[in-house]
Amino acid sequence: MAEKTEYMKIKKEAFYLKEKLIEHGHRYHVLDDPIISDAEYDRLMQRLIDIEEQYKELSLTDSPTKRVGAPPLKAFTTAKHSFPMLGLDNAFSDQEIFNFHDRIKKNLNQENILYTVEPKLDGVAVELIYTMGLLTNAITRGDGTSGEVVTENIRTIGSVPLNLSRQGNIDVPDLLEVRGEVIINKKDFETLNKQRLENEENLFANPRNAAAGSLRQLDSKITAKRPLDIFIYGAGDIQGLSIISQNEMFEKFKGFGFKINPLIKNNITIDEALVWHKELELLREDLPYEIDGMVIKVDDIEAQKILGQKARSPKWAIAYKFPAMEEITTIEDIIIQVGRTGTLTPVALLEPVSIGGVIVSRASLHNADEIERMGVRIGDTVLIKRAGDVIPKVIKRIGQQEKNDHSPFKMPELCPVCNSVIKKVGDEVAYKCINASCQAQIKERLKHFVSRDGFDIEGIGDKLSKQLVEQGLIKSFADLFKLKQEDFMKLERMGEVSASNLVKAIEDSKSIDLKKFIYALGINYTGETAARLLAEKYNDFFEIRSATKDQIENIEGIGPKTSAAIVNFIKSPVNLAMIDQMKDAGIKPFNDSRHTQDSGALQSNKFFHKTVVLTGSLETMTRKEAKEILIDLGAKVTSSVSSKTDFAIVGKDAGSKLIKAKNLKVKIIEEKVFKLMLK
Ligand code: IVH
After folding, report:
1. Which residues are catalytically annotated?
2. What is the pLDDT of residues 405-424, one digit of tens each?
3. CATH homologous superfamily, domain 439-596
4. Atom in ligand 1 nearest the alpha carbon of residue 119
């Protein structure tokens, strides 16, 4: 009897845990609005795993514990789609869209057509099949008629509901086939490739390939480790649910827990669609995921049915593509760049080509292994990809190289800058110049030191860093703080104003947050995250100096490679002397990451540590005045809106920045409110 009550209690707990995990998972993955910490979520999950392990009958297929992957498959099976998964016709100009609109008006014999427009996501199309609410099958698009069954892999994606529940008065349909795009965020793609580089695995060419490769894993435990996400944009067969418009479809799907793209616009005219296309193109670079255009769909489902389809595409939808971010050109030469840690990176000098409005004349070839894998040489025709601010990359060789008499690329034996020996270090793929005083390394270390996430000194770019190092003005970071206006003025093409601004910027940078200070030092494997973790753990650099490798490795999130690199750095007399010199020069890192130390009036304002953009003309003050006030309050004032912007303060006639801010859901503050906040 007692045992039975105990079991009932556990069963109830398992049910409760499952509900909570589903709710918090949905908040985290779909709504992007978590209300519990990751650690708390993990704790709930672990408890459910423990219970299910002990009471196997409580472990059902829709349990959140099933997202970790299932036993590997031997091969994929294929399955037919109930309705073919069609493609889209492409358009590249407003005129083509007007032609599309004219055809629709004519075929429907109607003047006013409303459209739903969606970003065209650059990922992998899949169909998810829910039977009586339960996810039972997931099939890739394949050839449109049938695809591979990837159910176990799809289950691992946090934003895929495993079981649908009744929404208000809407019953779960008997059958629901939804279609969407599996994607990987740009940032996650970069991280994944970085890991692959370290593990000497082939790199993914782009986020789409990474998503496709992750979805085609026979071992779903591997897929579970990949940061896949999914947006739902359409439907296949549906039984037991009525949907009359694309708009209603999204609303109902949202209700069932599916992730719907936030940049969808409903019920708009063709002219509005064209305006939005231009705005979306502006937003493109700042979005966390890749899009390659906009899909325009007739909103009314009945009208969609009347319009029908051609062999491979519907007549009621069209893709209005953005200019390609990939182009083809030839490699004119391959040079070697020496990075801040001495890593040699081969760079392709290209026949200049315009990619998405920017002229590209060089592209990274990553490393010698990648060149060999791609089989590229000077003279080859190659595909280049440019994405946002990152350095363009050579993706692959196009066609055969029968007539190419250049010999295959070989890494030099000596550093092209300082002539020191080149070595392959340990198990890394990279070749390195081992001379820490190599001018190229010093220059790159200096650039890293003054970068935004480091000392944040504006005005010291590639050219000036090079001059400072070549003129022998900077041998170590501490030298930077000894520079006077006259020193700068001796440099070629340096005016008095610029020189004085530089000295001022260097002076201003002396008050620096500890985490930025650590980051700026450019310790191997120590990026922004490790730097922040250290600052959260230790009060100041002096505490870090006396830490042992074990103590550092004990910090959650810091691995053995990083802790070894940090200890190596802090135990080096040269480095310690340099840090002492910086201290003598007046550098006093403050620590904002240790919450125990947070106090004072500065922190208690809304702008402290926020990134703010000012746009439009303010009535009661100049933008410059507003900027100064904000900086005094601890804000960072930037000139362009991005996903990192916290607030946009808008005056009269704010233009494209306001549009961008709205679309990126940046908090917009009008001048009147801004003034009130200052009080
Ligand atoms: S609708 C019948 N909507 O583009 C309509 N497709 O070229 C067919 N895609 O295979 C697709 N974002 O992989 C649609 N919002 C979106 C999309 C989208 C990306 C992809 C999808 C499809 C391909 C068609």
Report:
1. 120
2. 888 999 999 999 999 999 98
3. 5' to 3' exonuclease, C-terminal subdomain (1.10.150.20)
4. 15
